[in-house]
Design a protein that fits this description.
24% of the residues lie in helices and 41% in strands. It is α+β, with helices and mostly antiparallel strands.
Amino acid sequence: MSQNKRNYKATIILDNRGKEDSVEQIIESVKKEIVAVQGDVTAVENLGRREFVRKTDDKFPGGVYVQVNFAAPAAAPAQLHERLRLNSTVYRALVENV
């Protein structure tokens, strides 16, 4: 029995302060998290570093934005959000149905 997959777009803000990993390595780890929730990554776009409009931390005025398009089962966004919440290199994540 195959599951129906839906298309999603995840906008992720990366926090690489004090980390030795490059942005590309962090993006690869995020892609592995998507695969772990039975998702298929279709496109990745690095939007670059942007300053925040509202700063919650004066020591972190901006982050690297990445958009990832993927197809996954309906339960995957909640599972992915929980997995990314536990990842210290992900500052914020928003998963939208496309």
